[in-house]
Every structure is written in C-alpha cells, then in structure tokens.
Amino acid sequence: MVVLSAARWLRSRLTDRFWRKLEVLKYARHFRGRKNRCYKLAVRSVRRAFVKSTKARAEKKRVLRALWITRIEAASLEHGLKYPVFISNLVKSQVELNRKVLADLAIYEPKTFKSLAALAQRRRQEGFLAALGDGKEPEGIFSRIVRHHY
Amino acid sequence: MAGKGPGQERGRGRGRSEGPALPPGRRPSQGSASASRGRGGPGAPGPRRGMASYTKAAQQWATFGRAWYLLDAKMQPPGKIAAATVMRLEGKHKPIYHALNDCGDHVVIINTRHIAFSGNKWEQKVYSSHTGYPGGFKQVTATQLHLKDPTAIVKLTVYRMLPKNLQRRTMMQRLHLFPEDVIPEDIQKNLLQEIPQPRAVPKRLDEYTPEEIAAFPRVWTP
Q1: Is the pLDDT of residue B10 over 50?
Q2: What is the side-by-side order of every strand in the sheet holding B68-72?
Q3: Is residue B166 part of a domain?
Q4: Best of A64, A65, A70, A108 to disrupt the B interface by mutation (most B CBs within 10 Å)?
C-alpha cells in the first residue's frame, strides 16, 4: 500500500544549530568571562558590541581630529608658534593642507613642517605690517591671494 | 625659529622622509613604534650624504627615549609651573603623542620652597582634606601647608591638573620635587634640558646697577 502522507510524519529537525551559534560566537571569542563561550550570554554582548561599533564611527572622526590637532600643536610649539596662529596663517596663505596631513608631516617630514611654520610666521608678520603699518611699505609677498579659475 | 631652549642637545627637524615606498599600514595614526621622526641626536653620524644624517638607532632613541627636564620654580606661580610640567608629563609636547603611547617625560622641579602666589593667596587659599574619621575635616591655608611641607603645594597643583585617569599616578611618579637647589647625583646626571620659566621675574630696585639706573630715561623733571 502506498502511503502518500509518510513524508508528513517526518518531523523536521534543526540540524545546523551548531553553526548558527558559531556565527555569533565567533565575534565574541575575545570577550572576557563566560560571554566568550556561552551563546545566550554572547548574543547580548555581541549585539551591544555591534551597536557600539556603529555609533563609534561618528565619534572616531572627532577623536582622530582632536589627536591630529594635539600633534600639530606640539610640533608648532617646537617651532615657537601656537596652534591657532599656525593654522590661521596657513589658511590665509592659501595652503589647504588638512590636519591629518599636517600631523603626518609633523611626524615624518619635520623639515617640511619647519618650513610651513616659517611660512605661517612670515604671513603673520605681513599681516601685522598691513594692519599696523602706514601703508607706505610694499604689500607682503605671502599675503597675495591667488585666484584660481578651474 | 624661536622656541629652542638654551643648552639643547638634540636637534629637531632633521629626519629623513620614507618616501612613497612606505606601506600605508605603518602610519602611526594611533601611535606605533615605527615613527622615523627626525629627532636626531649627536650620536654616531651615518654615512655622509651631502648633509648631516643620523643613524636609525640614534633617531629611534631620540624620538622614543624618555627625557628628563629641569624647571626652576623660584619666584614662579605654582599654577603656571604645573601647566608647563603637565604638558611634559603627558607627552603632549611631542608630535608622536597618543594617550596609550606612554610617551611622557620626567620633570624635576627645584626651589619649590620659593614659589610665589599672586594676590593674597598665601592667606586666602585653603587646602582641604578629610581623614575619613568623623570630625576629621581639616582645612589649612597655603602658608601653613607650605611651612609644613614645601613641596606639597606644587605636588597638589600638578596632581589636580593631570588628566583624571589611571595614568595619573604613573605620571606623578615621574615628577620629582625638591624644595631647594640641591638635587641628588643620579638625577642630576639624567637631566637633559631646562624648561624656560613661565613668568619673567622682575628685578628689585637694589638689584639694578647704578649705571643702569643712571641710563634709565627721565620722563619728567620734578
């Protein structure tokens, strides 16, 4: 006799539970305590870790920028300039280097950074002359603004 | 450029660029040990390449070695003294700074007995503490504390200016305070550079020579 509903008597059983849990546990292996071994504890920790990682992406930009600024401040103080003076005079000289590049230059290219500091100092002096001088002195060289037409 | 201290033994700004061959992974954006920053020292000069260069070992020592700085606190306000030392203890005077880098230096402060508070702070500033027992709240003026321990004011000022994290205690261990000019031999041998004093000490009238007094311009005749 052919029993057509035999297949329905077979209850489907989960066979890959191990790998489903491993998928989560593999992100928890470096955690502390039982949450690096036990799935029920790990699930909660892994979810929080992912949430924190997502939210930290915006914070990372802030943190890195603050670090660059600290480093540029240290390097410019070595050359006798404070950070706001350095940055403002670089901007006025149309040197469009961002803080990331300036921090890397301060570490890896100290001579280049020194010349940038000298440029900022010179532009500062020209600014003072333009503000306080009588106007009879010739205009500064580094204060000239070049307009680029792209 | 101004800003180089007087007796500075280490040159700054003498590094060699790595060039485009450096793989981007070695950039120390989070601080690492592979910075080739040019804080070259007077160590063994490398092969002459047309200008002074430094061996990699000398450069590494100059960049990452922990330096010892001296600061004279005579006639200086303790707050400004502390601000200068905190910069050096944290390592924020170095372009390779990172909080996890442990790049702070040692600072030796001498003449802490001769610090100078401005205003009436010697009588008005109060240092409070509590022993933990009931009725153990103690308040002492700056004068009383200074007489009891001449290094306490500077120590407390520096401690309170440091960042309030676990590295504070380590940084305090790298701070060395001495009430007078006398420094132990082993610390004196380590000193590298003197930090310039934050406040320009004015001269008293009896410290001027008669020639200087005579050379001073007369503004009005009585």
Answers
A1: no
A2: B175-177, B106-110, B68-72, B193-194
A3: yes
A4: A108
Q: What value of ipTM does the predicted structure carry?
A: 0.82
pLDDT at B12: 42
Average pLDDT over residues B91-113: 96
The rounded mean pLDDT for chain A is 93
What whole-number distance in Å separates Cα of residue A137 and Cα of residue A131? Answer: 11
Q: Which domain holds residue B177?
A: 65-117+151-198
Question: Residue A140 carries which side chain, given as an amino acid letter?
Answer: G
- Any A CB within 8 A of B13 CB: yes
**Quick one: closest CA in A to B40, which residue?**
A110
Q: Which residue of A has its CA nearest to B20?
A: A108
3-state secondary structure of B172: helix
pLDDT attached to residue A138: 75
Taken in order B183, B184, B185, B189, is the CA torsion positive or negative?
negative
In a domain, B2, yes or no: no
pLDDT at A5: 67
Residue B44 pLDDT exceeds 60: no
Question: By the CB < 8 Å criterion, does A73 face chain B?
Answer: yes
B63-98 residues labelled b (16+ CB within 10 A) or e (exposed): bbeebbbbbbbeebbbbebbebbbbbbbbbbbbbbb
Residue B218: phi, psi to the nearest 5? -85, 125
> Quick count: other Cβ atoms within 10 Å of Cβ B38?
24
Structural domain span for residue A80: 62-132
- B14/A107 touch (CB, cutoff 8 Å), yes or no: no
Q: What is the CATH number of the domain that holds B190?
A: 3.90.1180.10
Q: Which residues of A touch B12 (CB under 8 A)?
A: 78, 110
Task: Give residue B52's pLDDT.
Answer: 61
What pLDDT shows up at residue B22? 33
Residue in A71, A73, A98 to test binding to B, most B beta-carbons within 10 Å: A71
Residues 18-57 of B with CB under 8 A from A: 18, 27-29, 35-39
C-beta atoms of A78 and B93 within 8 A: yes
Q: Which residues of chain A have pLDDT under 50?
A: none
CATH at residue A112: 1.10.1900.20
Percent of chain B at pLDDT > 90 equals: 73
Hey, is the C-beta of A86 within 8 angstroms of any chain B C-beta? no
pLDDT of residue A140: 82
Question: Would A6 be classed as within a structural domain?
Answer: no
Tell which of A6, A27, A58 closes a domain: A58
